[in-house]
Amino acid sequence: MTQTKHQLIAPKERKTLLLKYLAVISTEMRQMDTEDPIFHGCWDWHSAVHGHLAMLLGSQAMGWQAQADWMVSRLDSEALDHVFARLEAEPHFERPYGRAWLLYLMSALLLHECATDHEPKAQAIADDLATWLRPQNLSSGGKDYQEPCFVLSALQTWYSRCGNEKELNDWKVRIEEQILNNPADLSQDSKQPGYFFSRWALQTIVIQRALGNQRLKAWIERHDMQPEATVSEYHSVHHMGINASRVWGLIAAYQATHDSRWLDQSVAHIKAADALHSKWQGDRLAYSHWLPQFTVFAILGGPTIA
Description:
By secondary structure, the protein is an all-alpha fold. The protein has one domain. The chain contains 15 helices and no strands. The protein has helices at residues 11-29, 45-62, 65-75, 78-89, 97-109, 119-133, 148-162, 165-178, 199-211, 213-222, 242-257, 260-275, 277-280, 284-288, 291-300. The longest helix has 19 residues, at 11-29. The radius of gyration is 18 Å and the shape is globular. It starts with 10 loop residues before the first helix and ends in a 6-residue tail after the last helix.
C-alpha cells in the first residue's frame, strides 16, 4: 500500500473543468422547463435543485463571491416559501429523491446567516425524509430515485450542520447493523443498466460520516475491497452518471486508507465523466440538464465540498 498524498485535480485543470461545466449549468438554470418560481430550468425539478447546488458550490470553489452571493439571495427569497408550500401541499412530489437534493442545498445555505429563516421548513423536509427512510434497508434499497443511502447522506449533512447529535447517533446504529456486514459490491456498478448512483460509493460516504475514517478503513480491509477501473460500457443514458457518482466513495476510501490507488482511480473516473462532454453536450434530455452537475460534484469531491 502506497502512503502517498496528492491532490485530486491540479488547481489549473480543476479551474478549467469547473469553468466548462458551470457554463452549461448556468445556461440550463435559465431555461423555463417548469412553472416553479426558482427550480424551473434543467428539464426537471430535481435536476434544477442540484443544478443550484452545483452552481453555488462551484462558484465558491472558483472564488466567485459575487456569483455565490447572488445565488444565496436568489434562494433566500419569498419564492423559496412558495417551493416549500408546494412540497407541503403535494406530499408525494419528489419524495424522496428531489427532496434529498433540496436538503443538501438547504444545508449549504445554512452557512449563510441570511438563510436561517427557512430552517424550520427545511427541518420539516428532513423529518419527512427520515420517516420515509426508517422502514428501508440501508444495505439494499431500490433504484437511484429510491436509494436509501443517498437520502441518509443528505440527512447526515443536514444534521451535522444543525448540530443534531441525537439523530446522527440514531442513524449510526442503523449503519452498524445494516451496512457493515452487508456491503455493496463495487464491481456491480458496471452491470446496473439504469443506475446513476454507485451504491458502494453511497455506503462508503455514510460510513465515513457516521463512524470516521478508521472504521471505514477497517470495513474496506475486512471485505478486501479493491479499487475498480472506470465503467467503460454504458447501458443507458442514466448509467452515464456512474463514474461521476463513484468518485464520492473513491475519495472517501483514499481519505481512510491513504492508499493512492483509490485516488488515482478518482482522477480516472473524473476524466471518464469528462470524456462524455464533447459527444453529448448538445443533448439536453440525455445529458446537459443533469450530468454536468454530477461531474462538478465529482470534481469537488462530493455535494458538500467546495
